[in-house]
Design brief:
single chain; 216 residues; Alpha-Beta Plaits; 2 domains; five-stranded antiparallel β-sheet; 10 strands
Length: 216
């Protein structure tokens, strides 16, 4: 770990241009700097317990906004049993600390979440991995598939159709509480780097190709 404190005036120099990694490559550490802070196993075990309920977030936007505005909005949307800890962790990266499993599951596995009409990507975080290596390519959404003939309205068929959209997590065949039309409801992880799929098709040997309308 590096201490970014520097003596003298703050000007633009080679260290700033090359970044902290470049600076460290040219440093010769003295004995005092090599005197480690040692963490005991008991302390580390406690830290890892808390890390079970960490999450990392990223807002998909190029517009500027304040971290405080994001934190306050997400706390209001999530309405968790205990107020989460929040901190800015890098360029458009944010760490959220929940305090129980139920709150953590809600933040990480429910959604999708939005902030000022922009998607907030949430991933679980172990508290150790390099923040810049966290991948934010997938997002769970609810989608509808319309127009499936009754003959083929079977869980195994719908599951295969759902997988065309992305990684299927849940399929709802009977929508008594949400009934609004002739469709099935699915929860899938879509790849945010690709265009949304508007249709999924079903082919039966010897019959005409059927196209089911997908509405995210």
């Amino acid at each position: 770990m590096a201490d970014k404190t520097s003596a003298g005036s703050s000007g633009t120099g080679a260290g700033e241009d090359g970044g902290i990694d470049d600076m460290l490559m040219h440093l010769e550490l003295c004995d005092d700097e090599l005197d480690d802070v040692v963490l005991g196993k008991t302390a580390v075990a406690e830290f890892r317990k808390e890390a079970r309920w960490l999450a990392i977030g990223k807002v998909l936007t190029t517009k500027s906004f304040s971290a405080e505005a994001l934190f306050e909005k997400m706390k209001a949307i999530w309405n968790l049993s205990r107020e989460p800890g929040c901190r800015e962790a890098g360029k458009n990266l944010y760490i959220f600390q929940m305090h129980c499993l139920g709150d953590w599951k809600k933040v990480v596995h429910q959604g999708p979440w939005t902030f000022r009409r922009c998607v907030v990507m949430i991933e679980e975080y172990d508290g150790m991995s390099d923040l810049e290596t966290v991948s934010f390519t997938g997002m769970y959404v609810w989608a509808q598939i319309h127009g499936i003939p009754e003959l083929y309205r079977k869980a195994v068929v719908v599951d295969d159709l759902a997988r065309k959209l992305g990684k299927a997590k849940e399929v709802q065949m009977a929508l008594k509480l949400f009934y609004e039309g002739n469709y099935v409801r699915i929860r899938v992880m879509i790849d945010t780097t690709k265009p949304l799929m508007r249709f999924v098709s079903l082919s039966v040997i010897g019959e005409e190709r059927m196209k089911g309308r997908d509405v995210a």
